[in-house]
Amino acid sequence: MISILGAYILSARPELYVLAIGNGRYETNRAKFTDKTFVPFEQIPQAEDSAKLVAESMKRLGAKASVVLASKGGALPLSKKVIEDAIVKMRKTVEHAPKGSVFFIYYAGHGTSEGALYNQYWWPGNVTVSASGNRFSWVGERLTSLSDVAALSELKERPTIIISDACKPFDRTAVNDLRDQRLRNVLNDNVAENLGNIQDVLRALAEFKCTNPAVVFAAKPGFTARTAENPLEPAEQIGPIARRLLILEPKFRTWATVTIDQFIAELTTVDVDPQTASTTTNFVGYKSEKAASPILFALEGKKGS
Fold it and tell me: How many CB atoms are closer than 10 A to CB 253?
């Protein structure tokens, strides 16, 4: 009876589930491009390496499951459907995990922002047309938005953390198109300045339609995320947030538990790594004055943080 009860208590502990996406291969066959003027994205094998390193690190930090989704060699580029299907599949696993379990999503690859509503989009590897000019309307249809990722991963009583190790530039042509065709008499320079003053609020409203995600970006709106040295292999380049996680892993391993708030606070502290100090963060949903931050992972054998 005691052993059965003990097994039940252990199984009821919150668990950490990790999906690490390395989107490093992009279509280069010009015959497949619907926009012949579009310049293909450069290949970024560092994205695949970053996803693998993050998955391995989180596994060492106690993840129950750590899955890597990447396109390598001659494999087809990751499409929007493949990325979103992987999120849904892992969500179904987390759905049956104990309450309080965490769904951790990491993405490394090309990213962009439409520049008007401060959303961020992950570029699937098979997209062959640029998000500019009068194509503003299809950005959400062809690319994977952070709001979609948050909605697809949302679970009741099981928090989500999304790490976007990607660029966040925006296309001024798309903004001009929106201004000229839809908001000609509204989005003047004064209004644009006022919108900039409340951009954090707009980002929350535009990006996250669900209730509980915590999000870390590798770049501020309008900026790129540059790769940095792998602290384990200086000759290799990896994503800036992947680098920060590897630098912090030894410190985390000395703590008994690490909450989501603690994890993000450490991950985004400038002093952790001046080389990647541009990292920013965005809290939404679960965070409140009354609610305690969910535990991200707990290490056995540790007595205190």
Answer: 13
**Does domain 14-298 fall into CATH 3.10.310.10?**
no
Which class for 284: exposed (0-12), middle (13-18), buried (19 or more C-beta within 10 A)?
middle
Task: Place 142 in a pLDDT band, splitting at 50, 70 and 90.
Answer: confident
**What does the alpha-carbon distance between residue 285 and residue 294 come to, in Å, rounded to a whole number?**
12
Intra-chain end-to-end CA distance of the chain, in Å: 33
Give the C-alpha separation, 150 to 155, whole Å: 10
Q: Residue 2: its pLDDT value, please?
A: 37
Query: Distance between CA 288 and CA 280 in Å, rounded?
Result: 20
Domain segments of the chain as ranges: 14-298
Which of 296, 234, 300 is CA-nearest to residue 267? 296
